[in-house]
Design brief:
8 helices, 31% helix, Nitrilase/N-carbamoyl-D-aminoacid amidohydrolase, 6-stranded mixed β-sheet, globular, 7-stranded mixed β-sheet
Length: 311
Amino acid sequence: MKIKAVAVQMEFRLNDFLSSRNFRERIFDIMKRIDKMVELNERSLVVFPEDVGSFLVFLDEDVSSFDGLEKAAKAIIKKNFFTLLLKRIRYNVGWITSFILSKYRKIWDSYYGTFSDVAKEYGCYIVGGSLLIPRIEVQKGKVNRISNRIYNTSYLFGTKGEILGVQRKVHLIELEEKLEISSASLSELRVYKTSIGRIGIAICYDAFFKDVVEKLVLQETDILVQPSANPELWDERLEKEWPTGCWQAVQKYPTLKYGINPMGVGKIFDLVFEGMSSIIAKRDKTKDKSGYLAKSTSRNKEEIIYADILL
């Protein structure tokens, strides 16, 4: 079976996250461009980068005039001081967690509504990057929080817009710890069976850890998806280190057939993202023996790369 794999090297722009309408239009515009390139259908898998939904924390916030993330955060806390203080005391959490807990429903409605609708419209599978959100359960259209901790969470959407899978990040980088993000348990990792193969998700840093990758491999993953957002400049060190993640895993484990690693780029306040997206196969399955079926040409510009994979 031939599958069209697509990695979205999306440019993060603050204005796209300041309203649900902006976010929806942005994602639908990207999908429209992809459809023109590959003619999306039920045998297509589109993967967005890590944190594509994380900046929805700024929904309906007047923060466009700030030049730094810390300044914006302080302004939001000051504006909502007493509300957030009550949540801090009630749930014994920090300021950032209190803020996300106060608007997780609004964040979820925008994120879920957008990705569910766009997956349904194009009839394809989508990994919606990730977003910062507490553990939730959705019943009869209503979303309820079942924890007071925030996780970096990825969702897999099916061709009818339904949620097929959820994955939370296990290994966190220093910035995430500062932002009060909690680490998920290794035991939560699951592989999701679809009509285009078994999909395993390792959010960015997780793909560099043997415990995560082997947990997914043991569950017979066909396609390893690594949504990424690297919050630093892409230099020679990262160029050398990055292949030790998804690329190395695909080469090392015989049953792991492909990898899809989209990376976020752009700038949110003073936070800069750079990276090189790729679609990966076994070395002997690529014409130049590089192990790359497709790779972006820029480290800091928006690109859409795609390749045919066979399962």
